[in-house]
Amino acid sequence: MNLQDLIKDLSLEIVTCEESMNNEVTGAYVSDLLSDVMANSNVGNIWITLQTHLNIIAVADMKGLAGIIIVGNRKPAEDVIEKARAEKVTVMTTPLPAFEAAGKLYQLLDR
Amino acid sequence: MPLNSDKTIEGSFQLVGGNFATAGEASGELKRTLTDLGVAEEIIRRAAIATFEAEINVIIYAAAARLLYFIGPSSIRIRIEDMGPGIENIEQAMQEGYSTAPEWVREMGWGAGMGLPNMKKNSDEFNIESVVGEGTTVEMVLNIP
């Protein structure tokens, strides 16, 4: 399973790092608490969150996550996008709320 | 894995409170330095997380802090001395879920009472000393096997 496989089902818009769509996805973690993500996510996980501020990029980079999916039609600001590009962190957005995004992702990963 | 260097490598950072945009500068540099030295990825990750949580704590609670790191052949030592309000009850502060962070910080997804526990979890040795009205000093050691 890689990021490319998720785009259609999760209605993803790729904000940064289109080149990383072949990155292997090992699982996912849903949380809006950044320390929780640092404590409990795993390398290669997709992170589903509604947070859009700058610190999410550092968290994803530090944990070696496969990418961030920002839910509920929220969009990251330009400085966040710039930092994501600089750190090579894949950021995606979806109009889906977290529960639906996670549900669909769970089914895909379960296949 | 032995390091490419048998000398101690030192670095220091001045951290300023209040500005979340600067979070990750110190941990990022430490991460790059450890990567250049060929330290195992898992140890780098733990060191970066522990340092990042420390940076966040300084940003939330303190006016400023000094962060020092020492990388030796068999360990990484990270020390943060802050000029903050100090911690009255360290035992309570170390409990997961306990936090005195203001509401706006919690809205950012910080201040969940996991910072100090995460720092402890990611280090092999963890020491914290605090004087109310003066500041808090945290020292963490990660062993390089």
Topology (elements, then pairings):
The complex is a heterodimer of chains A (111) and B (145).
Chain A: E1 13-14, E2 27-30, H1 34-40, E3 45-49, H2 55-63, E4 67-70, H3 78-87, E5 91-93, H4 98-110
Parallel strand pairs in A: 2-3, 3-4, 4-5
Antiparallel strand pairs in A: 1-5
Helix pairs in contact in A: 2-3
Chain B: E1 9-16, H1 25-37, H2 41-61, E2 64-71, E3 75-83, H3 90-93, H4 103-107, H5 115-121, E4 125-131, E5 135-143
Antiparallel strand pairs in B: 1-2, 2-3, 3-5, 4-5
Write a structural description:
Chain A is an alpha/beta fold and 111 residues long. Chain A has one domain: 3-Layer(aba) Sandwich (Udp-n-acetylmuramoylalanyl-d-glutamate--2,6- Diaminopimelate Ligase, Chain: A, domain 1). Chain A contains 4 helices and 5 strands, in the order E-E-H-E-H-E-H-E-H. Chain A has a 5-stranded mixed sheet, with helices on both faces. In chain A, helix 2 links the parallel strand 3 and strand 4. In chain A, helix 2 packs parallel to helix 3. Chain A is globular and about 35 Å long. The mean pLDDT of chain A is 95. Chain B has 145 residues and is α+β, with helices and mostly antiparallel strands. Chain B has a single domain, classed as Histidine kinase-like ATPase, C-terminal domain (Heat Shock Protein 90). Helices cover 34% and strands 28% of the residues of chain B. Chain B is built from 5 helices and 5 strands. In chain B, strand 2 and strand 3 form a beta hairpin. The mean pLDDT of chain B is 95. The chains are: A alpha/beta (111), B alpha+beta (145). The interface between A and B is medium-sized, with 20 and 23 residues.
